[in-house]
User: Which sequence fits this backbone?
């Protein structure tokens, strides 16, 4: 079961109140069999805790790793995953499809 949007945003607010760095990952484009729709969110703190989903488990690990880098350097990133990508087998989108995820630091 996926976390509801309000749970994801509440976690981001809670982690910020605790003084944690936070990044928000948002699905901005999909093609084919991507399991989560555009607008889906995943929130990550500097320790790597996360809540939400951008792919139903296919690319969350890679997104969390990038999100911790975004927290550290403050530079937003557009991540692309898909079967034509060299990381397709590594992150699990072998069933087809493509997903773009925008990751930004929450201030």
Assistant:
């Amino acid at each position: 079961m996926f976390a509801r949007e309000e749970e994801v945003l509440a976690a981001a607010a809670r982690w910020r109140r605790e003084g944690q760095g936070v990044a928000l990952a948002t699905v901005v484009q999909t093609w084919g069999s991507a399991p989560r729709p555009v607008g889906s969110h995943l929130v990550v703190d500097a320790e790597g805790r996360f809540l939400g989903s951008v792919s139903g488990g296919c690319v969350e690990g890679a997104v969390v790793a990038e999100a911790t880098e975004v927290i550290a350097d403050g530079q937003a990133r557009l991540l692309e995953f898909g079967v034509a990508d060299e990381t397709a087998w590594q992150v699990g989108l072998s069933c087809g499809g493509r997903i773009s995820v925008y990751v930004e630091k929450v201030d």
In short: Residues 60-73 form the longest helix (14 residues). The chain has one domain: 5-106.
